[in-house]
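subagent[fold] <- orchestrator: predict structure for attached chain, return tokens only, no commentary.
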Amino acid sequence: MSLHTLAPLRVGIIGAGRVGAVLGAALSESGHRVVAATAVSTASRDRAARLLPGAALLPADEVIARVDLILLAVPDDTLTDLVSGLAESGNFAHGQIVVHTSGAHGLAVLQPAIDRGVLPLALHPVMTFAGRPEDVHRLSGVPFGVTANDEHRAVAETLVLELGGEPVWVEESARTLYHAALVVGSNHLVTLVAEARDLLRTAGVEDPARLLGPLLGAALDNSLRYGDKALTGPVSRGDVGTVRRHLRTLVEQAPDSVASYVALARRTAQRALASGRLKRHEATPLLDLLAQRPVSTGSPSHPVTTGSAGRPAVPGPADSSAIGS
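subagent[fold] -> orchestrator:
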């Protein structure tokens, strides 16, 4: 096989979910032929009909028996048992290419298949998918986190390029950290934005997106360009009084948001200190405040401390013990 060119392969998709169906469609566009797929749910069957026309919907063992390349696009926690079960049943054949799309796993999860002589690859597209036809075109230029043995790197690179992506090589030992970083940057970002929207609605803002869109767009662009130098806001200025007022208001009006605010503010303060945005004498009182535990749930292990009005208390300048330790 020469670099950037693979002979047309018969492809089987194990898991015609959002990722599997989209990658299968992309492989079809690059000249390969998706001949079979697994699809259990109605949504998966509908998706396969849209994106993988002509592919037979079969059990996993029958899919594998018909193909040269097996694409395993299943949830991270099911991948280990799936590979082991298929290998123990004798489903993999020597020389087949077995690709999984999990970001959390490298090649070790494919060891039972490797023992049967397959060519193993871990190709993780760094993109979110809706499982619709337009997703195929969004693959253009998308980075793929790739883990492969040295002798298989050319095949891995070729497949990624044929999918329209760009390979980024990730060592086997770094795979979990790589995936954790992407979760923080993508999945947690969605939660963070949703949290900000909810708080704005609680504050009476009818259209939170109108405020957040320009602000978050600029913040994301600046952070990608300048890193910690892009940091603004009360934590970066060491405004302890503002942060204390935020906490008091959150405890009273949005108690479920207290813990996340504290955790993010603490980490922001630590990064601001490490990058020189905050001086030690500015950071210390802020970190002291954030090192306490603003409790907002009233759980048995962390009961809410109440003020004179019966509401959860937040420490004032001379009352740092009111939150609890």
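orchestrator: received. Logging for downstream: The longest helix spans residues 175-202. The radius of gyration is 25 Å.
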